[in-house]
Amino acid sequence: MQTEPEIRYLKSFILYTLFAVVTGMVVGMVQGAILGAIMGGVGVDVDTIQVTCGITGFLFGSVASFFVFRWIIRTQIVPQIAKHYENPVS
Question: In Å, what is the CA distance from 54 to each residue of 10, 76, 81?
């Protein structure tokens, strides 16, 4: 059946999207709170703290989503591809 692999890919995409968004938000929030507290303690302007924390939060969140992407590929896609090549359909 042709739609079965498509559903697996859709499931993997949805899992990746949800986990990447949540993980990116949490990582960005934690690093933003820590960096904002440090910069605020030093006496940096609030606007500078917002911009700096926004940029670094995006970068940290992107790195976190990359690791989520690797995890989803390793746990969802690779086993399905391996199973397909172990049992080829003639």
Answer: 30, 32, 38
Report the range of poorest mean pLDDT among 23-27, 56-60, 84-88: 84-88
* CA nearest to 69, candidates 25, 18, 11, 20: 20
DSSP letters spanning the chain: --HHHHHHHHHHHHHHHHHHHHHHHHHHHHHHHHHHHHHHHHT--HHHHHHHHHHHHHHHHHHHHHHHHHHHIIIIIHHHHHHHHHS---
pLDDT per residue over 35-51, tens digit each?
999 999 999 999 999 99
